[in-house]
Amino acid sequence: MDAATGHHGPMTSLDTIRRAPKVLLHDHLDGGLRPATVVDLAAETGYTDLPTTDVAELGRWFTRGADRKSLELYLETFAHTVGVMQTKDALERVAAECAEDLGADGIVYAEVRFAPELHTTRGLSLDEIVEAVLAGFRRGAATSTAAGHPIDVRTLVTAMRTASHSLEIAELAVRWRDAGVVGFDIAGAEAGFPPTRHLDAFQYIARENFHITIHAGESFGLPSIWEALQWCGAERLGHGVRIVDDIAVLPDGTARLGRLAEYVRDRRVPLEMCPTSNVHTGAAPSIAEHPIDLLRRLQFRVTVNTDDRLMSRVTLSGEFAVLSEAFGYSLNDVRWLTINAMKSAFARFDERLELIERVIKPGYATLAAETADAEGLGGPIPDPYAADPYAADPGPGR
Description:
By secondary structure, the protein is α/β, with parallel strands linked by helices. The strands form three sheets. A four-stranded parallel beta sheet has the order 1-2-3-4, with helices on both faces. It is globular and about 60 Å long. The protein has one domain: Metal-dependent hydrolases (TIM Barrel). Helix 6 runs parallel beside helix 7 and helix 8 packs parallel to helix 9. The chain has helices at 14-19, 35-45, 55-66, 71-76, 78-83, 88-104, 126-146, 166-175, 199-207, 222-230, 259-266, 275-281, 292-297, 316-327, 331-344, 349-374, 389-392; strands at 22-28, 107-114, 152-160, 181-187, 213-216, 236-239, 247-249, 255-257, 271-273, 302-304.
């Protein structure tokens, strides 16, 4: 272990990362369409507002439109993806392709979120919308598994914080909890739309013993995080980048945590961090200056995610690769971050434990042995986290 950086072993190649079992907690369904699918669905559904029907150019357009250093401007690009996702067939296709794409990237467990209220333009009911998406995830996961990439895809139902339907959406999430929905979220512009506007929805979720994650601390600061945790009962923070505003790095390199940052770390509140998206929205100035490495070194419960694969033109493997390049992450660092994510998932405890012990740990052990042999080390890389009580404990909040 490098005492200065906390990293274990050599940097990890993109090819190795792709083969590693990974876990994704923060990915938006309407932010991950294939550009070709957007074009196809626009033609099928009569959507005529696309800026171009050239597939390659459309993909570049989405990324240019998203990379404007503003969350509000970033969100404008979603008008076109949501615009073509207004029929059952379209929703099912997008969900199926999502599962296939995530599986092909080596993801073994994913929680993909979407806002049903955005897909009612053509008369679909909220329940029909959720049913179509869940059917798509089941179909895509089956296809991925048959192709040798087993994946378990769950759903987070999201309410828009700029609207007033959150209680209805919370009730919808609970209604489908036994069919694949594992939690409730709110998303959208943070500034001017605090999570406390939706207290009735969060209180309902809490009474139903269900799960809550909240977009907080992305484009707005510490008050958004504090409200999400202390008023709304968030178990995880979507992004949470601005928690770094409550951390002072002293001249000698040590860090002093404020009360809120200390609470987040002590309570093991998971941070659903999305590095490239955070750069595009202006939440972080660059990957090299992203607070994720500081937070990881300070032992916050950091997880790595994609947010919007189309808009930011990313994969989870790619996100780990750019972090490896920027911060020297090794295979064991990727493993640690992956186990963080699985421990923080909203699946049942026994399901989390099963994936950690039977899929994730063996998968990394195999890759570590192969990497060691390739480098002439003569055996598997020692597991630097073997004595880490947090790595061994897949329980919630620890």
